Amino acid sequence: MANSLYDFGMIGLGVMGRNLLLNMADHGFSVIGFDKDATKTGALESAATPGTTVKGVADLAAMVQQLERPRKLMMLVPAGQPVDDVIASLLPLLEPGDVVIDGGNSHYTDTLRRVKYLREKNIHFMGIGVSGGEKGARTGPSIMPGGDLEAYAKVKPMLEAIAAKVNGTPCVAYLGKEGAGHYVKMVHNGIEYAIMQLISEAYTLLKKGAGLDNDQLHKVFDSWNKGSLQSFLVEITADIFLQKDDKTNARLVDVISDKAGSKGTGKWTSQDAMELPVAVPVIDTAVAMRTISGYKDQRLAAEQLYPAPDATIHLNTEQWIQQVHDALYFATILSYAQGLAMLNEGSRELQMEIPLPEVVKVWRGGCIIRSTLLEVFTQAYQQNTELANILLDKGVASLVTSVIANTRSVVAHAANAGIPAAGFMSALSYFDAFRTGRMATNLIQAQRDYFGAHTYQRTDMAGTFHTEWEHHN
Ligand SMILES: NC(=O)C1=CN([C@@H]2O[C@H](COP(=O)(O)OP(=O)(O)OC[C@H]3O[C@@H](n4cnc5c(N)ncnc54)[C@H](OP(=O)(O)O)[C@@H]3O)[C@@H](O)[C@H]2O)C=CC1
Ligand SMILES: O=C(CO)[C@H](O)[C@H](O)COP(=O)(O)O
């Protein structure tokens, strides 16, 4: 491409950066990518679709000089210090009006700080959440932009071109002010943690409770993926059970260590939810379970100390599979409900103006939490754009009601059989509290007033009251 300038630049040619850039090229944009590792710039060029314009360079200044003005650049580097390092290296090379996008999983408070810092230098900075993993980035991710509307207008045609499509509609929309894009992506990941935890519980309930082997588990999850549980995570779970290990004759899932890692977005969701406050106990539980998974030595020691009850579920296998299906459906709805309630409250508290009807539409395709349920929620928000919690929608309520009895049965059986199912239990407990008009928390308020003169409100008259409680023994 002698003498011509490139439409778009990418910094960081790892899993996401390389694939997103190739996706842009496939949609007719001329692109240039920078990575300090020359093997990655070479790999970028050799992976390009013939006929597309893709260049890889190991010199940041050379990349910036070859971009069309105003420049449009994205970085896909690890969150935290690397993002600040890239900004510091870029700043002397940029001009007022240039657009810099952070497409990684940055914490929204870092994004707020960077937006402010770069605004002072007349550089547009946008935090954009991208979901879909390696394959999604290459063929159509879900994209969650937030921040500067003027900058968004400049990159909107490109983002709409590369995003996943659902019925022809691109899975990208402007999702609010300042750090909103990264806030929405953080909560997306919190919901992702929750649903992954629930699927792992369904797996253990079927495996330990009913003795299903990997082929049977594949069939169950595959059939679930053809019905009301249809989703990306259920689909890949079905695949996982069939994968053979190339080092042994075993199925790969059986030789993978049970320590689950994390990069922090689930934990941030829990932390920020506590801060607001808004209750997201299924997400909290999912984060905690990954933490407990790391206590391998302690768990092995405890296994010797505390013999497990008989884990067999004494129900007809087909009946048990149906009950676990229903419990997974129930708790998945609860996971979305908690995440969306957090977005509602976070948007209000932080004045981000996040449009929830758009969020659920953007999540319908391309992202890790895409599922047929997002269509249900899209309809719910069409009925009421101000819905504080999707559990208050009548359509959602009828779906939840249809599976509640089986969910209660699964939770009771899991408790009796000693099979850990904290996600299901937590979803059910949240639901039972949420649908209770008068909880037992009047007693907590009485205790607070008893020991700390924290006062209380009454059910029968307005005002704030304190009692000198009598000590009765
Ligand atoms: N993988 C996934 O499924 C998803 C990841 N994300 C997020 O996207 C971002 C990128 O992730 P991913 O592509 O998986 O990560 P990778 O580790 O595959 O790639 C990161 C790239 O960033 C480069 N890099 C690291 N530090 C710097 C630096 N200081 N300056 C310049 N370049 C740097 C690395 O270069 P080098 O190796 O040459 O040092 C590498 O090419 C992260 O924030 C991640 O959380 C978002 C959605 C999905
Ligand atoms: O953003 C993503 C998916 O949406 C990334 O894959 C992220 O790394 C997942 O989180 P974790 O690594 O903590 O499981």
Automatic annotation (TrEMBL):
Binding-site residues for substrate, renumbered to this chain: 105, 131-133, 188-189, 193, 263, 290, 448, 454
Coiled-coil regions, chain positions: none
Domain 6-phosphogluconate dehydrogenase C-terminal: 181-470
Keyword match Oxidoreductase: yes
Gene3D superfamilies documented for this protein: 6-Phosphogluconate Dehydrogenase, domain 3 (1.20.5.320), N-(1-d-carboxylethyl)-l-norvaline Dehydrogenase, domain 2 (1.10.1040.10), NAD(P)-binding Rossmann-like Domain (3.40.50.720)
Protein keywords: Gluconate utilization, NADP, Oxidoreductase, Pentose shunt
GO biological process: D-gluconate metabolic process; pentose-phosphate shunt
Catalytic activity, as annotated: 6-phospho-D-gluconate + NADP(+) = D-ribulose 5-phosphate + CO2 + NADPH
Tagged with keyword Cytoplasm: no
InterPro entries for this protein: 6-PGluconate_DH-like_C_sf, 6PGD_dom2, 6PGDH_C, 6PGDH_Gnd/GntZ, 6PGDH_NADP-bd, 6PGdom_BS, NAD(P)-bd_dom_sf, Pgluconate_DH
Function summary: Catalyzes the oxidative decarboxylation of 6-phosphogluconate to ribulose 5-phosphate and CO(2), with concomitant reduction of NADP to NADPH.
Name used for this protein in its record: 6-phosphogluconate dehydrogenase, decarboxylating
Organism of derivation: Chitinophaga jiangningensis
Record lineage: Bacteria, Pseudomonadati, Bacteroidota, Chitinophagia, Chitinophagales
